[in-house]
Backbone:
C-alpha cells in the first residue's frame, strides 16, 4: 500500500493552452499523445518530459472549481497524484490517521491547504524518456505551511502517508528566518521539502507566499536534469529567465567545496548554485516566477552523487527568492 512515486501533477491556471505553450517552448515539454476529451468552457492539456507528467487545467466559467481555485490562490499546483501499490489501503491508512477524505471514489484527500493528494495505482508501464530531452524527473516538491504548522505537517506525512523525515534545518538569513523539514517516501522517489516562517523575525518570502497564495501550498517544483548547463543554456535561449547569483558567491567556492564537477567559470556564467554532501555534489538554479502573484516557480537540479539537502541549498533558495523580490 506504500506510496512509490508522484505519477503526475495537476496544475490549475488561467489559460491552460497558453501555460502549456510556455512550458513547451521554454523547457521542452511535449503534449501527451492521449489528450483529455474537450469540454465546453474547460481547457485541459497534458504535458510530459522524461518521467514528469503535468496536467494543466483552466476554465472560463467563474463558478467552475478550477476557476475558483485560481481566484483564491493564483496559478499553481492543485493536486499531487501519488502512485501507490494499493491505493485503497493507502486511503484507509490516511483516513485512520486523520486525513480528510475529499472524494472517496477518486481517492482524493486533503493535503496542504487547498493542495490535495490523489492516491492512484502505479502505471502499468512507466513513462519512458523520448531521448534528447532537457529534463528527466520530478526531484522534489517544496511546500510552504503557516507558522506553527510544520510539526503537524511532518507528522501527517509520517503517519498518514508513511513517509520518513530525513533532514531538518533552521535557516536564518539576515533578519529573516525559516524552519524546514524534508520528508521522503520509503522508495526515495517522493520528496517533500516542508517550510514554515519564523514569525518572531522580520517577515520574508515565506510569509509573502502564504499571504499571496492564501495559505499553505506548493512554492516550487524541482525538476531533475542530467546536464544542467545544457538545460539552462537552452531554456535561456528560449526566453526563460533565471534568478541571478552575486559574483562573490563563486569567489569562495573553491575554498568552500574544493573542485566542482562543473567548472566554476561555467557555474558563474550560468548563475548555477552548487552544494555537496557525503555522496557527491548537486547543482541547482531557480527560474524567475512568471505569475502575477509570484507564488510559484520551477527549479532545475542536477545530482552528481548527492542525495540529501544541505543547509547551503535551502539558504541559497531563500536568498535567491529574496533577490527576486527586491528586483520587482
Residues:
Amino acid at each position: 500500500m506504500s506510496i512509490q512515486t508522484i505519477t503526475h501533477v495537476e496544475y490549475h491556471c488561467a489559460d491552460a493552452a497558453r501555460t502549456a505553450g510556455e512550458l513547451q517552448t521554454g523547457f521542452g515539454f511535449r503534449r501527451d499523445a492521449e489528450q483529455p476529451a474537450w469540454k465546453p468552457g474547460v481547457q485541459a492539456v497534458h504535458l510530459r518530459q522524461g518521467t514528469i507528467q503535468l496536467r494543466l487545467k483552466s476554465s472560463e466559467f467563474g463558478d467552475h472549481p478550477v476557476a475558483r481555485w485560481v481566484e483564491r490562490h493564483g496559478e499553481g499546483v492543485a493536486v499531487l497524484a501519488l502512485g501507490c501499490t494499493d491505493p485503497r489501503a493507502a486511503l484507509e491508512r490516511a483516513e485512520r490517521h486523520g486525513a480528510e477524505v475529499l472524494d472517496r471514489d477518486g481517492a482524493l484527500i486533503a493535503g496542504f491547504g487547498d493542495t490535495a493528494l490523489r492516491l492512484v495505482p502505479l502505471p502499468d508501464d512507466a513513462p519512458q524518456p523520448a531521448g534528447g530531452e532537457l529534463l528527466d524527473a520530478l526531484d522534489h516538491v517544496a511546500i510552504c505551511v503557516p507558522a506553527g504548522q510544520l510539526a503537524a505537517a511532518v507528522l501527517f506525512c509520517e503517519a498518514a502517508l508513511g513517509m520518513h523525515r530525513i533532514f531538518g534545518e533552521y535557516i536564518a538569513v539576515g533578519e529573516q528566518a525559516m524552519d524546514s523539514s524534508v520528508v521522503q517516501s520509503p522508495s526515495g522517489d517522493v520528496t517533500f521539502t516542508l517550510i514554515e516562517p519564523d514569525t518572531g523575525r522580520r517577515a520574508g518570502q515565506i510569509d509573502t507566499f502564504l499571504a499571496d497564495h492564501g495559505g499553505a501550498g506548493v512554492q516550487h517544483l524541482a525538476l531533475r536534469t542530467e546536464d544542467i548547463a545544457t538545460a539552462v543554456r537552452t531554456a535561456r535561449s528560449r526566453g526563460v529567465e533565471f534568478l541571478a547569483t552575486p559574483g562573490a558567491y563563486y569567489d569562495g567556492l573553491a575554498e568552500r567545496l574544493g573542485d566542482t564537477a562543473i567548472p566554476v567559470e561555467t557555474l558563474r556564467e550560468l548563475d548555477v548554485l552548487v552544494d555537496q554532501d557525503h555522496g557527491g555534489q548537486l547543482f541547482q538554479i531557480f527560474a524567475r516566477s512568471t505569475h502575477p502573484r509570484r507564488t510559484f516557480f520551477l527549479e532545475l537540479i542536477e545530482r552528481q552523487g548527492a542525495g540529501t539537502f544541505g543547509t547551503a541549498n535551502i539558504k541559497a533558495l531563500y536568498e535567491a527568492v529574496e533577490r527576486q523580490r527586491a528586483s520587482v
Notes: The first helix runs from residue 16 to 27. Residues 3-121 form a domain with the 2,3-Dihydroxybiphenyl 1,2-Dioxygenase; domain 1 fold (CATH 3.10.180.10).
